[in-house]
Write a structure and sequence with these properties.
By secondary structure, the chain is of the alpha+beta class. It is 42% helix and 29% strand.
């Protein structure tokens, strides 16, 4: 089975654009109304902090996820959605033989979802890797869960 969340890319790029435009608009309005307000420096820092926080949260959450279990190996891949074609500094990839996979767990935090993969390394050490699956749809997460369960069930036989 092969799946990814490629359709989310345009939404995230639009969200970055909206955050930047909203930041410019708020800072422009702040300059217009700064003469009226007595505590303008505090308001300025609060506005800048909120804009930067929104940008950082979007940056941390927005990751491309790909799962591929066709063939001999299982591939899990996370890439950043911002500047991913030019800079691959946010790529996190793991390729495992199917018999190395021992377990998995989906963690659902309020705005952040992760997939933890448990596997044994070539030297029989138990390891785990975490992948960001926040932007993967519920339906695709269900298919990934079914596919991994099938692989683990085959490993136990």
């Amino acid at each position: 089975m092969r799946t990814n969340n490629e359709k989310v890319k345009n939404i995230i790029i639009s969200l970055y654009f909206i955050i930047i435009v909203l930041g410019i608009l708020i800072l422009t309005l702040f300059n217009v109304f700064s003469d009226i307000s007595k505590n303008s420096t505090v308001a300025f820092y609060v506005i800048v902090f909120v804009i930067v926080a929104l940008f950082v949260i979007t940056y941390r959450v927005s990751k491309f996820f790909e799962y591929d279990s066709d063939g001999i190996k299982v591939v899990f891949l996370n890439k950043g959605l911002l500047l991913k074609e030019h800079l691959n500094y946010r790529e996190h990839k793991i390729e495992l033989d199917k018999d190395q996979l021992t377990g998995f767990k989906f963690n659902d935090y309020f705005f952040y979802k992760t997939l933890v993969i448990y596997y044994t390394s070539r030297h029989d050490h138990k390891r785990n890797e975490t992948f960001n699956v926040t932007l993967v749809s519920r339906k695709k997460r269900k298919y990934i869960k079914q596919s991994i369960r099938k692989i683990i069930k085959q490993n136990q036989n």
